[in-house]
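Pipeline run #58 for the internal structure catalog. This entry was flagged by the ingest filter as a single-chain record with no existing model, so it goes straight to prediction. Upstream metadata was stripped on purpose; only the residue string is passed forward. Reviewer on rotation: M.T. Logging verbosity set to normal.
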Amino acid sequence: MDKKQLILKELRSSDGYVSGQQLCEALGISRTAVWKIIGKLKEEGYPIEAVTNKGYRLLCVEEQDLFNREEVENRLQTRWAGHPLLYSEETGSTNNDIFALADRGFPQGTLALTGTQTAGKGRRGRLWISPPNVNIYMSILLKPDLRPDSAPMLTLVMALAVFEACKALYTSPEEARKCRFGIKWPNDIVVSADGGPFMKICGILTEMRMEEKEIRDIVIGTGINANQTEFPEEIRETAGSLAMALGHEVNRAELTAEVWRFFEADFEAFCEVQSLEPLRTKYEAALVNRGRKVRVLDPQKPFEGTAMGITPTGELVVRPEDGSPDREVGSGEVSVRGVMGYV
């Protein structure tokens, strides 16, 4: 724990003021050093009150969107997911960052978190738009003992964790706007506010490296539209954010920690059997496609039908309109859209 974190810990643990002398003695540094660290914390947005002959006091930060390593680590309740955590104000791609850290020997659970990406990656080589200081961009390093054909299912595990975190934090009676969260198969997190259309608020990209026909490592990158309020015209009809749905800003550090709390448990349940079976009931309950008419955009032969659920390996089960047997649709093969729109 660095000096800045230690000072935050001292301030958080006190009900009143902490004198500069107390901080000097606790950290073994000079008053000038304490003063500089306090100044840095204020620059980062921490509401610290300084009173002559009393010292320093940290005011309430729970309602503020302070997004940095200290705030996320302070909220993490996991054993390994998110440890260690590396935060940067700006990076090219957190997925690339994690692969570089893996090459340096970093362990499973290592998390790269940033306020801005300049080269974020989406599915099928698309660019993931990453405006600065409003959203969550993060990637985790995994080194699971899995069969290579099991790895794609981790994208659905990640989607379930994000859904569970959003539902836990933002569907309380205290929320003024009533939001319904869901998963659009296979891994888009969507939200509907006050009965409106579903809008995408999260994208997930899983990448894997192999070594002698075995998994070397896996990176799951997750981008969550948290406090963004403007979107490019080409995605405006389908993209949204938590802030737009809820009508207020969200605390990104709180949401980040909650995502990894759910992911750790779901990932371990999945790895135990290398199947989505232990998570299938929860996933299908979140699946907004289920019971809806969908159009399967198969390059060979598109068709329409009703989404029924998923298989234990994550394929979408679709019952064709023409009465033919149910078909299992793989996410790597085709795209699925609602007949009347995005969902």
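catalog note: The chain has a mean pLDDT of 90.
catalog note: The domain at 3-58 is CATH 1.10.10.10 (Arc Repressor Mutant, subunit A).
status: ready for reviewer M.T.
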